[in-house]
């Protein structure tokens, strides 16, 4: 008999254990809390679900939060997949499909607070979900709204994380949550110190949340973690208003309130002993009001002396929301280190931006430097050669869909097209206007307008895309502060390639030798058998061709329109003039100076790029007053010595 009873008990216990380890069993244990959930009662249900580790708990929580859980008359819960006169249901444990009459079920409707609690529990399940997308979603949810309850499950999920990037992200978030919510002060301080090497926006947000403060005022210095004691004498009116808001002082009477009290206490042509005829000044009204207050006929007048006395009798302070002073001290030190690192990173980022802008200016101006330096021609159509190069790249991409190949084809083709256009322009117009700078300026300005209109007639007024290859998409990101697009890096590299190529042509080839000879002394070069007319033609074509290649490079990140050349002609002339006319190194120096100068001004006034360009022009004008020949001045015709 004893054995039979013992065996029966074992069966019953086993049956109960098996029932409790099903999701439905857990729900039936807390049937009232599930059917009519409240913010406090649902916590018990969620704790049991989390502790169970059942895989079916995750989809149930998702459906519960979406109000897709219904209860049958017998108390069992189901997930509704389709609602109509007949409900399409799914078993919470097995997922088996079934149906039932709608009147036999009631919908479970958790409120907003309960749904947020369910969402927090759901995140804990998702942190160890087999699908990486669910784990990533859970981590993203914690990053958006981290709470103290998420620290333990997040930390526990790290050991089983197989994805290295997601594991690193979890470790970072654990550090964030530990710094804010850990119960161990030593752990919080260690986590905060660990944040001092991270300059991300999230890190700064975490440290600032630890260092949140609130202003207060009291009759004596309060207990707690005081951030600072404030000096109320800096703004007495604001300080007294703070006293009034804290109900520590009566509000000051307004002029209308004083007048109403005086009018209510007129007696035999006097108020407070002051004749009505004398109440035309503020001191007289205050004197009468003070007399009424002394006779208990009005509240005490809040004078400046009263205000100052009330301010002196109170302590104005700023209090940390965090009670532990060691934690806030560690956070302040970490934030100071982070801000210092951010400052250094900002300087690096600004330097990279300035180098990128300088390389663009160099590419845009080097062709102009060659033509202007050798020929003394003020070519106002130089920007249109840049535009022609960009449109050449666009046309090539219409025939070659592979963007890498199309760019490789467009670069030499743009040189050929703009080289030919430059030679044609020099032969038809420029050669007849040598030594007549004003006529040359007007003629090239007219040509620039004509080329713009021609581009509008062919390509329209809408901006055309010049698409970069996929390997140039995105940016090189070092951290949250320092980053530069791959296109700008490519332009920077291209600028250095052209610097080397032009130096090779000018220093190592016969054409370069003849160009330098004509630049320094055209008369002597002619007597040595060099044809200055031919050199001028080739030089103008070379400068125009380089402008075309610059157009392809610039078009990869800027808009390609008929007016795009006008955006660079002013900077090109500034670069040439500042650097030194006709000198490659001078052009590089000028582009660097203008690029860094413009980015520096933009940093001081980041909301207005046009203003930065304007200030840069003014600085260039000031610069050439002191150094008219530029940074690197040449002797000979290019320097105006002939």
Can you tell me about this structure?
It is extended, with a radius of gyration of 40 Å. The protein has helices at 2-20, 23-29, 31-35, 42-52, 57-65, 112-126, 132-144, 151-158, 164-181, 185-194, 201-210, 236-245, 255-264, 282-294, 304-312, 325-375, 382-399, 403-428, 437-459, 486-508, 510-520, 522-527, 532-555, 566-579, 584-604, 609-626, and strands at 69-72, 77-82, 86-91, 97-101, 105-107, 213-218, 226-229, 270-271, 274-275, 315-320, 475-477, 483-485. A hairpin with a 3-residue loop joins strand 2 (77-82) and strand 3 (86-91). It is built from 26 helices and 12 strands. The chain is an alpha+beta fold and 642 residues long. Helix 6 (112-126) crosses helix 7 and helix 16 (325-375) runs parallel beside helix 20. 63% of the residues lie in helices and 8% in strands. The protein has 5 domains: 2-117, no CATH class; 127-212; 213-252 and 302-320, no CATH class; 255-292, no CATH class; 343-639, ABC transporter involved in vitamin B12 uptake, BtuC, CATH 1.10.3470.
């Amino acid at each position: 008999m004893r054995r039979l009873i013992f065996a029966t008990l074992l069966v019953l216990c086993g049956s109960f254990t098996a029932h409790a380890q099903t999701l439905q069993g857990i729900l039936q244990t807390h049937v009232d809390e599930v059917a009519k959930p409240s913010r406090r009662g649902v916590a018990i249900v969620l704790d049991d679900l989390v502790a169970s580790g059942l895989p079916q708990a995750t989809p149930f929580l998702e459906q519960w939060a979406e109000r897709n859980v219904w209860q049958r008359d017998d108390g069992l819960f189901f997930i509704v997949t389709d609602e109509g006169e007949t409900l399409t249901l799914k078993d919470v444990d097995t997922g088996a499909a079934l149906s039932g009459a709608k009147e036999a079920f009631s919908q479970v409707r958790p409120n907003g607070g309960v749904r947020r609690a369910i969402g927090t529990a759901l995140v804990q399940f998702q942190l160890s979900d087999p699908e990486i997308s669910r784990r990533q979603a859970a981590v993203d949810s914690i990053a958006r709204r981290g709470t103290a309850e998420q620290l333990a499950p997040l930390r526990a999920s790290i050991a089983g994380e197989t994805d290295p990037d997601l594991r690193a992200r979890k470790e970072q978030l654990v550090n964030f949550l530990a710094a804010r919510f850990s119960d161990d002060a030593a752990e919080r301080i260690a986590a905060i110190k660990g944040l001092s090497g991270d300059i991300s926006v999230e890190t700064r947000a975490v440290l600032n949340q630890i260092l949140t403060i609130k202003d207060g005022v009291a009759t004596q210095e309060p207990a707690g973690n005081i951030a600072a004691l404030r000096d109320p004498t800096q703004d007495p009116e604001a300080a007294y208003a703070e006293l009034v808001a804290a109900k520590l002082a009566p509000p000051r009477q307004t002029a209308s309130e004083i007048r109403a009290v005086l009018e209510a206490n007129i007696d035999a042509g006097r108020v407070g002993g002051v004749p009505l005829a004398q109440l035309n000044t503020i001191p007289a009204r205050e004197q009468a009001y003070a007399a009424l207050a002394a006779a208990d006929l009005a509240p005490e007048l809040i004078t400046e002396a009263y205000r100052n006395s009330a301010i002196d009798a109170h302590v104005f302070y700023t209090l940390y929301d965090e009670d532990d002073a060691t934690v806030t001290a560690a956070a302040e030190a970490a934030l100071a280190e982070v801000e210092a690192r951010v400052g250094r990173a900002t300087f690096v980022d600004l330097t990279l931006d300035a180098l990128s802008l300088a390389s663009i200016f160099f590419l845009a101006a080097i062709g102009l430097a060659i033509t202007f330096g050798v020929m003394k021609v003020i070519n106002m159509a130089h920007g249109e050669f840049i535009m022609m190069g960009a449109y050449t790249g666009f046309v090539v991409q219409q025939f070659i869909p592979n963007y890498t190949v199309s760019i490789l084809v467009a670069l030499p083709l743009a040189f050929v097209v703009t080289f030919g256009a430059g030679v044609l322009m020099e032969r038809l117009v420029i050669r007849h206007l040598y030594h007549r700078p004003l006529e040359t300026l007007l003629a090239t300005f007219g040509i620039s307008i004509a080329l713009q209109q021609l581009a509008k007639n062919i390509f329209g007024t809408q901006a055309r895309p010049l698409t970069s290859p996929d390997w140039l998409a995105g940016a090189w990101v070092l951290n949250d502060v320092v980053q530069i697009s791959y296109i700008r890096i490519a332009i920077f590299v291209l600028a250095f390639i052209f610097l080397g190529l032009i130096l090779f042509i000018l220093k190592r080839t016969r054409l370069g030798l003849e160009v330098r000879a004509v630049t320094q002394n055209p008369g002597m070069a002619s007597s040595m058998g060099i044809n200055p007319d031919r050199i001028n033609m080739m030089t103008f074509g070379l400068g125009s061709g380089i402008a075309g290649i610059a157009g392809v490079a610039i078009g990869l990140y800027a808009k390609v329109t008929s007016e795009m050349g006008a955006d660079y002609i002013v900077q090109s002339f500034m670069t040439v003039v500042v650097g030194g006319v006709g000198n490659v190194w001078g052009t590089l120096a000028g582009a660097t100076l203008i690029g860094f100068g413009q980015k520096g001004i933009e940093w001081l006034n980041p909301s207005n790029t046009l203003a930065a360009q304007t200030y840069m022009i003014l600085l260039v004008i000031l610069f050439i007053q002191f150094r008219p020949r530029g940074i690197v001045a040449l002797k000979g015709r290019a320097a105006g010595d002939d």
